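Final report, closing paragraph on structural work. Over the funding period we assembled a curated collection of sequence-structure pairs, and we close with a single example.
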Amino acid sequence: MTPWLLIPVKALDSGKSRLRTVLADDTRRALNEFFLRRMLATAQQFPGSARTAVISECDRVLQIAAACGVQTVRQTSGPGLNRAASEGMAKVRRRGARAVLLIAADLPTLRPCDLRELADSARRGGGIVICPDKHRTGTNAILLPRDAHLRFRFGKGSFLGHCSEAMRAGFPPIVHFNARVAFDVDSPQDLVLWPGARGLLAGARATNA
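Its predicted structure, as stored:
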């Protein structure tokens, strides 16, 4: 069964706050919008617009998502990724979702084949698929099979926290490491490691000049 994709997104003005030391606010905002649009373009190829939902408190984020043809969920449970994940999961399941893949928006090298690979891992393993970040301490994606419920533990040490919560929920944690899923952009060092950053940021600065 093809999973739904659930993408929690912070407000464009406040996202990537750790990059404030190296990026002007306008450039950082443009970067956040780039991440969102790129993720939505990837999702349109798999699992498709009808099975993709964005949850956010930000009007502009929801406008962009709606314009791209995906479903939108307004976050009403208060700020924070754990609240967004729990609320979004409950709401997309009420809309008919069974298996749901929760994924970070800031994965600039992600490809549709990576999402398909994740879905295949869940079908083969029958557990909760957990994808660590590049440091193998955080969590960039979680795929919950039908009828699985998880207490989300995003924050410091979330990877081990989510593995523990999966076992507590009665599902084996399936650790799936994929370099493109693992590569998120949180720090100035990540911008150095990302090959596409220089051209993108130069264009954003020129537009905002």
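The mean pLDDT is 93. The two ends are 47 Å apart (CA to CA). We thank the funder for supporting this effort.
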